[in-house]
């Protein structure tokens, strides 16, 4: 984007607008300076006059470039500030999601611990029941043997 500055004193006004780009050829600028100029002696040496006007034109172009550069830098600053704001919001969002995921992970880890404890208890109960079953089977076998011997034996 080009910055349009108000025209310097030594440039002729444009018919359409009071501002225009600071580009003009040296001969027109010299003519304008001589007609409307700032403290220029019309009897001044031509080389010196051309150099003076050329320096003024160069200074004007330099000011335009500087203003354009400042404008570009201000635009860049605004763009970067907007980017920083968006990145900060995104970082906060990611931090919040991270915090929620950590809480969910902690809850799941507690649930896993509870399920492991329940599985251990169930395994101990199963082992206890298995031992009891073995004991009862042994008792039943002993009881059957006892019953067998207790029954009257048939007489031959």
Automatic annotation (TrEMBL):
Pfam families: bZIP_1. Residues 77-111 form a coiled coil. One of its GO terms (biological process) is positive regulation of DNA-templated transcription. Keywords: Coiled coil, Nucleus, Transcription, Transcription regulation. SMART domains: BRLZ (SM00338). GO terms for molecular function: DNA binding; DNA-binding transcription factor activity. It comes from the Eukaryota. Gene3D superfamilies: 1.20.5.170. Residues 45-108 form the BZIP domain. One of its GO terms (cellular component) is nucleus. This is BZIP domain-containing protein. It comes from Salvia splendens.
